[in-house]
Amino acid sequence: MTAWDFTAELQALEDQQLTRVRRVVEQVDGPHVVIDGKPLLAFCSNDYLGLAQHPGLIETARQAAERWGVGSGASPLVSGYSTAHEALEQELARFVGLPRALYFYAGYSTNAGVVPALVGRGDAVFSDALNHACLIDGARLSRAEIHAYAHGDVLALERLLAASTARRKLVITDAVFSMDGAIAPLPEILALCERFDALLMIDDAHGFGVLGPQGRGTAAHFGITSPRLLYMATLGKAAGVHGAFVAGQAQLVEWVLQRARSYIFATAAPALEAETLRTALQVIARDDWRRGQLQSLIAQLREGLAGLPWPLLASATPVQPLIVGDNQAALDLMAALRERGLWVPAIRPPTVPQGTARLRISLSAAHAAADVQRLVDALRELAQTR
User: Fold this and answer.
1) For 230-250, what is each residue's pLDDT tens digit?
2) Would you tell me which CATH number, out of the four given (3.10.450.50, 3.40.640.10, 3.40.47.10, 3.30.430.20), belongs to the domain 55-286?
3) Which residues contact 326 (CB under 8 A, 6 or more apart)?
């Protein structure tokens, strides 16, 4: 046996019910998919507004592919930055009400590159304990001193900021937490940043397009703005396409452009994606009915699942976590739903804390009320046989 034999480690994952398995999707029609020849009604996609198969977006992508081709060919700082990218960045900045935006090829790489561009040795990062892995990894890569505060605990954050003597202080938090659906107390956090001369970077991957007037995001939902705010969101969820962006003060965004290694040294996203996202922004702003449909489905699900042995966490977003607790029990519940033609993923540690394995129910405007009722009926039936 060599040091590169992972047999024991892989078996340990299997023994703890922590092995991850990819499912190969064969067909997609909104929330209806086919896997291994079996039709399933999916409650696992982050396509919150149902735009991934929107005919207008598909037609824009087709026309853009004919004009630009399917690849960018280089990094944005060489020849990968087109008029499509430039227009998208301008429209993203206007959409979220900030002076300037910078478009990245993927969400994970955005946070992994932006945080180290902002802070380094001698600086401090203050991170919510339940932040997404890309924020955590960005903080680690920065080599700044990291202070994790209890989830949503504004008083704990205040104590940490007050005690810090760091040159620069950066607070990072999910705006909507991807596994809980909880919304961060952004007004209170921003007030602390104003008080303690800190910068606030929010990751609005799960709020952009869903929350705020016309889906303009969680900051707009709270009505907050500040020169101390750096706004980040992904574009492969509610926007239905791919990529991510950061927006903020022009000088701050320029610094990120100059220093973020994941921007400088990576091939740019294809122009066809940028063009398609411009159409997506128009649909997001125009189609308020999609957000209305989501709110109706959320209310229906929460009312239908009330009183089950598995509690739903408090969430006003499309992310509705059903807490099961035990890893194997969560897997068993997922399997039982799949037998009934329903795909709801079991989420286990380390993605969520130990003892909080759950089903992450993800709703979309593409779902119908009958789809949600089917899920409710199945879970109520399974609860009776528990």
Assistant:
1) 999 999 999 999 999 999 999
2) 3.40.640.10
3) 355, 357
